[in-house]
Specification:
The complex is a heterodimer of chains A (300) and B (232). Chain A has three domains: 1-42; 44-59 and 173-296, Nucleoside Triphosphate Pyrophosphohydrolase (Alpha-Beta Complex), CATH 3.90.79; 64-143, no CATH class. In chain A, 39% of the residues lie in helices and 17% in strands. Chain A is built from eleven helices and eight strands. Chain A has helices at 2-19, 24-39, 64-80, 86-89, 95-112, 140-143, 158-162, 204-216, 239-245, 278-284, 287-293, and strands at residues 45-54, 176-183, 189-192, 195-197, 220-224, 231-233, 249-261, 272-276. Chain B starts with 9 loop residues before the first helix and ends in a 33-residue tail after the last helix. At the A-B interface, helix 1, helix 2, helix 3, helix 8 and strand 5 of A face helix 4, helix 5, helix 6 and helix 7 of B.
Chain lengths: 300, 232
């Protein structure tokens, strides 16, 4: 959707310039564009970079206010419920009915027994606190011959506790981005996104994938979202560098998702890598680089 | 069984109704037919035929409320399941107790009083919630706007700097199209490799893009991945 808007906007702008040369606005625009083209008479050197994103694995933790509100709403709902037709769903006097009655009592106690308990802040996955307290005890009478259910995996992984930035299990709720430590255009060792030059006749998305695999290895299942660049970084270079590079340097970033695998840097140009959130990237990266890239990273 | 009733009273209707039901459910029937019998034996249908006979008598000025009241728990005759199903499908409309249908709820006020602190408090909570939702919505919209501006700026720069790349970036991906390199590759591959290449359709979301869940997968992230060659 967004891409189509961008496309149509760009097309309309070009069409306006071409089809109405007699109008004053268009002539001014033409003059400015011609001026721009004459100033950048030298060829532009284009790099393709990839922002590899590991999407969130886990749903968001509700805030305290949200949990309180959901508990409040469930209490109102429970108060306004019509009586449940237990005789229709359960056979009178059966074990299942007793189990249901017990669970209902717990739920009633939870909803009305006291204020929503604050100690449930770490288990924020339950939205209304009703199901949180229901535990299937491994008693035989309770189970009624069913197999005991394995508890689900914890939301907090070992990588969270250790702070292992290379792990892809860390911070399941957040968006993680791949940052590597390598040489930038000036030859300095910096933290940056994987990037590389364009070969002849190559397009941006092809070059981006190739450069990514060259720098970080092929053991990742990468899906490049689209052909359009999402951000551009143009460092302010001194005249000498521009002449040596034979043009202004532009780095176009493309968005990609990692679906499986792990980064394995070759070690030649790339010394280190990390999967970081937006706040963790900011202190490690150069200021002007950050200014170009910060808008494209997700806050959550 | 049928007594001569001078007025159409509740007791009269009851008797008529009871009689009709007993006639219907005296014989035992197989399970599949049983349910059909329950559904077919609608109270209205039964009552109409017998009521006609009753109504021909002298009617009182005030007709007492016709209520649906079923036979109690006559388990001796039929299956109790029938009674239960009947009671669930055709609930009584006698207003003496709240029912699962919810047609009579005299205690709503009392129950609400127990649930909410006060009307003003409830309204304040609702307003706070809507305000919170508005903040969340605004933050999301502004983030999206920033991302869009970044994309637009990048595309504009690309247009000025490298028009041929810009044209290529603007081309819409056709999911059905296959490049000649892809068709050549597919001829060589077989089995799961071929499926892997075929499955990743250009311009569409991959299946492996996982929806966020409340708890992570038991085995965590798949770190072992063998690369698949896919010509773009």
């Amino acid at each position: 959707m967004l891409s189509r808007n961008v496309v149509s906007a760009c097309r309309q702008r070009t069409r306006g310039c071409l089809h109405a040369p007699s109008r004053s606005l268009a002539s001014i625009a033409e003059a400015s564009s011609s001026a721009a083209s004459s100033s950048s008479a030298t060829k532009a050197v284009i790099n393709a970079a990839v922002i590899v994103n590991r999407s969130p694995i886990l749903t968001r933790t509700s805030s305290l206010f949200e949990r309180a509100y959901y508990a409040y709403q469930s209490r109102i709902r429970r108060a306004l419920f019509n009586p449940f037709p237990t005789e229709f769903y359960f056979k009178t006097g059966s074990l299942l009915e007793k189990k249901f009655a017990r669970e209902e009592k717990l739920r009633e106690k939870e909803a009305f027994g006291g204020p929503w308990s604050l100690k449930r802040s770490d288990r924020g996955s339950e939205d209304d606190g009703e199901l949180g307290s229901i535990q299937v005890s491994p008693d035989q009478a309770d189970n009624m011959g069913e197999e005991p259910i394995e508890p689900p995996a914890s939301r907090i992984h070992e990588a969270d506790k250790e702070g292992d930035v290379k792990s892809l299990d860390r911070l399941g709720e957040r968006n993680l981005y791949l940052l590597i430590r390598g040489k930038d255009h000036l030859g300095k060792e910096v933290w940056r996104f994987p990037q590389g030059p364009l070969q002849d006749g190559e397009f941006l998305h092809q070059a981006a994938l190739r450069d990514l695999q060259a720098e970080v290895g092929e053991n990742m299942d990468i899906w490049v979202v689209g052909k359009k660049p999402i951000a551009v970084y143009q460092p302010s270079l001194p005249e000498s560098t521009i002449k040596s590079l034979a043009g202004e340097l532009y780095t176009f970033f493309l968005k990609a998702h990692i679906l499986a695998g792990q980064a394995r840097p070759s070690g030649k140009n790339v010394t280190d890598f990390a999967w970081l959130t937006k706040e963790e990237i900011e202190p490690r990266v150069e200021k002007d680089y950050w200014a170009s890239v910060k808008d494209i990273l997700s806050d959550h | 069984m049928k007594q001569s009733c001078k007025t159409v009273t509740l007791a009269c209707v009851q008797q008529v109704f009871n009689a009709e039901f007993q006639n219907l459910f005296s014989t035992s029937a197989p399970t599949s037919v049983r349910l059909l019998a329950v559904l077919k034996a609608r109270p209205a249908v039964i009552m109409s035929s017998s009521l006609l006979a009753v109504s021909k008598q002298k009617l009182a000025l005030r007709v007492s409320q016709t209520s649906v009241r079923y036979i109690g728990r006559q388990e001796s005759g039929g299956d109790p399941k029938n009674d239960i199903i009947r009671r669930a499908l055709y609930p009584s409309n006698i207003r003496n107790r709240p029912s699962p249908v919810g047609s009579w709820r005299p205690d709503v006020g009392r129950r609400l009083q127990r649930a909410i602190p006060s009307v003003q408090a409830h309204e304040t909570i609702e307003r706070a919630w809507f305000l919170h939702q508005r903040h969340v919505r605004r933050a999301r919209a502004s983030e999206l706007q920033r991302k869009f501006e970044s994309v637009r700026n990048a595309m504009e720069t690309l247009r000025l700097v490298a028009p041929d790349l810009y044209v290529e970036a603007n081309k819409e991906e056709d999911p059905r199209a296959r490049s000649p390199a892809e068709t050549d590759l597919l001829k060589k591959l077989k089995g799961p490799e071929k499926k892997a290449v075929e499955a990743r359709i250009r311009g569409l979301f991959p299946r492996e893009l996982r929806t966020p869940t409340d708890t992570p997968p038991r085995n965590g992230w798949t770190y072992d991945f063998t690369p698949i060659v896919r010509p773009s």
